[in-house]
Amino acid sequence: MLKKWTAFLVTVVLVAGTIFVSAEDENSTYSALVFIDDPFVSRLMEYEGMTAGQVESFMDDIDDFIASFKENIYESDADTIFITILLQVMQREEHLPVMVAFDAMFPEEIAYMLQYRKVPEVMGNFMDVAMRRKIIIEVGPARTEEPQEPEPTPTTQPEEEKSKYFDDMADYKYAVKAVDAMAQRGMIRGTQERCFSPGANITREEFTKLVVSVLLETNDVYTKEYFKDPSGAWYEPYIAAGEFYGLSFGYYEWPYELEKPITREEMVTVAYRAVRRVGLQLPDIKYPTHFDDMYQIKYYAVEPINELQKANIISGVGNNKFEPAGETNRADAALLLYKLLLLKEN
Known about the structure:
Blueprint: H1 2-15, H2 29-35, H3 39-45, H4 52-67, E1 73-74, H5 75-90, H6 96-105, H7 107-116, H8 124-130, E2 135-136, H9 176-184, H10 204-215, H11 220-226, H12 236-244, H13 264-278, H14 302-310, H15 330-345
Parallel strand pairs: 1-2
Helix pairs in contact: 1-8, 4-5, 9-15, 10-12, 10-13, 10-15, 11-12, 13-14
């Protein structure tokens, strides 16, 4: 029913678009929704402290994001693309009030959206109006999909390199170059003499240390500010720097749950936030992959996974899966950070 209503409404907007907006973009999505007294905008505005200016700014950024698309959007992809855009824009610092209001006013809709990757009915007008100039309603034969590269399984990559520093990399040849390069720079160490333990889990504090060492820096001021009574533990300056740069804000806080393995979505999020802090420009190399388990990805990790995947910094685990809650091993963490190190150096 929702799909039919969506198709009908999009058709109306395309054919009689002057009701809401002119062909020259004279009116924004926000203006159009206010004009029709849209229920999504109305409920959002009911949240205490929410202002019209905040909602308008948020929707203007949605408009800008969609306008930047180089190609049209097919109706069959509209829900997934719109949800991705919505979550990415909402995570921006300036739109934090909107994200808080959205979370408070639409809990059931959020659960539906994340589980089924479908836009809930209350947001139907929002999607249709925002995407009106890019969406194409499919009729007749289905279009030919853009070919997607198969997601590689890291352990099967044909890399016949032997590590100069570690003797246990035989099953992780894809990461040998990365591990050796970082070991040579003193950024990574083994677990014992000539042993890297590439398949072992990497903990939150260990990955934070690597990210800070590769992209950022420590400072005694950060440590003294974060740890009122420092114990001298090796991880303290790195955790303090990570907190200063906001690498973990929003999904786990101190106590840092030491020795807890970091998940794949946490790893990508921390790395992406470090990329943003240092101002690295990520290349746009690959088409975004719509992983079959995208609905399992936490909201904070949607943009990081999307952006690092397009930049060919990360990939899935095979079979079009990402396994966001899966644990990360030392080899994969080293490979991710080595790619970011190359970007920084170049």
